[in-house]
User: Fold these one by one.
Assistant:
Number 1:
Amino acid sequence: MKILVVGGGGREHAIIKAIKKNPRAEKIYALPGNGGIAADAECVPIDAKDIPGIVRFAIKNHVDYAIVAPDDPLALGAVDALEDAGVPCFGPRKSAAIIESSKVFAKELMHKYGIPTAAYQVFTDMDKAMEYIETCPIPTVVKADGLALGKGVTVAMTREEARDAVKSIMGDRVFGDSGASIVIEEYLEGPEVSVLSFTDGTTVVPMVSSMDHKRAGDNDTGPNTGGMGTVAPNPYYTPQVAKECMERIFLPTINAMREEGRPFKGCLYFGLMITKDGPKVIEYNCRFGDPETQVVLPLLESDLLRVMWAVTDCRLGETEVKFSDKSACCVVLASKGYPVKYESGCPITLPAPEANREIYVAGAEERDGKLCSHGGRVLGVTAIEDTLEKAVAGAYDYAAKVKFENGFCRSDIGGRALAALKEE
Ligand code: AMP
Ligand code: GLY
């Protein structure tokens, strides 16, 4: 079977390593992949947003199955275009990917179907938004409606910050048309939990929970990034919270999307906050999280490709999806200066493979036969162990064996989760 994976980061590397375990995956193409993914798949220099190019490649190469991983091609309708050309896919169609690509859509969906989330207002007029900010409770949260490379959210601790956020999103249009509408919402407090789920539009199967670390610096300081590390499972996601999420959030969301004529098939990511009033949705993503995937998929005991096919065929309810009860930790090695200003092209030497350790390459290219950094987040180093404590120590030990002089990592990935376990 010939499989095409759209994307070229650490998440795609983790997906490719997992599907490779199925002997039916005889050929895997990554579009565009990267210099590290090249060890596990044939990388083809077609941009993930070049939908006609992707479709042409799939047809010409008789691709049997496509997995579309990043948000941009999903929002642009990559799955629609591939399916219409006869290529079965894993991933939502454009009409369902809107759950991530429009925050206004997501908020209105939750409001209509009574799914717990922060109270909110939508604005299309900057003056009205500014007026609202003068009297709204502070802190408050300002969100651009559309995709903004994960940077469209400002948690404003003062009115001044909220005004600045509205001005840059709506006035200066720093995210382009993504800022034509904004959501201003209630500030929620509590630990955050990421839950990725498989869904075929009717059945929803949550994967093992995880915790991201979004800020660049230790103790959650510094600018927001794409994610500096993850652990799984997340200790705040207790069986009681899981039950509540299934009843009040996961199933109602899947049913709502079906009722709206936008059945969601693929991986739906629930970004949750466990507030004193119970779990609430902070965001939906229409795809696997990055770097959540780098801790979730190593714990999947079932065959990923089979589960994906079951989603595509709407047979998820009859398919076993089993996770190990071990723990995983992924430490991201990023280029010094990320996410602001950083150099690329710095040499990297990977350590020898070890059992229960994985290195997922997020941003690297091959230059004269040598792996060099190419981007902000460069590697995700994952360890799988019986306990979270051992997984965290294992990930840091293995990361220390990587030679990457221009790299840095946070030193406290998993710290909050370990502290929560000790409190129990
Ligand atoms: P997002 O880009 O949607 O993932 O949001 C980035 C981060 O902003 C989230 O991970 C939260 O930490 C924070 N955030 C988003 N919405 C809220 C909210 N309503 N209250 C408090 N924090 C929030
Ligand atoms: N790690 C957060 C995301 O993938 O959106």
Number 2:
Amino acid sequence: MARFAKRVLSIESSPTVRISELVTEMKARGEKVVSLAIGEPDFPTPAHIVEAAKKALDDGYTKYTPAPGIKELREAIAEKSQKENKIPAKPENVIVAPTKHTLFLTCMALLDRGDEALIPDPGWVSYGPMVTLAGAKPVPVRAADEDGFVPSAETVAAAITPRTRLLMLNSPSNPGGSVYSRDAMRALADLAADRDLIVVSDEIYEKILYDGEHVSPASLDGMFDRTVTVHGFSKTYAMTGWRLGWLVAPTPLFKEIVKVQEHTITCATAFAQKAGVAALRGPTAPLDAMVAEFRARRDLVMKEVAKIDRLSTDRPSGAFYVFPKVDVRGDSATLCERILKEASVAVTPGSAFGVAGEGHIRISYAASRETITEGVRRIGEVLAKLG
Ligand code: PMP
Ligand code: GLU
């Protein structure tokens, strides 16, 4: 009999990935399921990006690249980081890898057994398991409705112990759709500096922003040297299947993190990297059109959710999720199973995002307007039947 490592036995499979696969299987069986579960833009990748990848294949970009990525993509990322995020990044600070992998690399390079990493609760489903896989302990920091889904410096301070090494931040956030204000980010950054923590800032939803400003902690005074910024192409450019993203780290951190890249995936896919250059350097009109459509969908989903007495939520400011509180007895996983069974609508239970997510459901509005209207209406029907 195979024996398994404790680190893998102590994590569960990814709820978001599992629900998405379930929806795919149901559709393949001919079942009509309305999916508001997965956080994946329903748009095609913009044509100029696809063309760049085709050309790259024709030009022979089918071999290994340097481990941290091709020069022109690292240059484009450094330029973007400097211009748009005010992060003093050089191309030598950039490692290209799928966004999920950049987080994994960071955890592997920075965490030891017994170390603790603070993660927002509710927060994206994979932060905790990545910390666990690196042998350390994820420590949830409550950042729920009453905090507008933004971790407060006070709550974070209360969770710090002598073993705390990392503070993970995510603005705009999944699942809350919150955007951290400059003041909130400054307070968290000051705390990290004061307590000598490394900040890992997941900015994958940067461009899916409707209200407020995007603040990169690495741009704040003195923070570049203690911040790993992770980002990617999946959400902004509808490129989930390309598996392409990046991290920006100060030189001492870069040097250790890149070793993990060299010994795991070596480098990101060569022709996908060429497409990444086209995405960053190409026209922004397709991106602007997608964000405008997400904004309209956010307004639509808010209008539809407001019709349902048992759902309550503030208006999210970014990403493409709404995370309403559900006024019913019982747990969110059972409720979501029921919604899927009785109404053929897939949504993600709030408990998937942490203890503080219980009592909520996550509705992804990265779906057509018709899907949103129909899906939320059907959720309302199920909720109306419950005592
Ligand atoms: N961070 C957050 C907050 C996410 O929602 C996701 C979801 N995909 C990722 C990171 C990982 O992105 P990717 O699929 O591009 O690796
Ligand atoms: N991040 C997306 C989500 O939350 C995609 C699935 C995943 O990687 O978790 O639905």
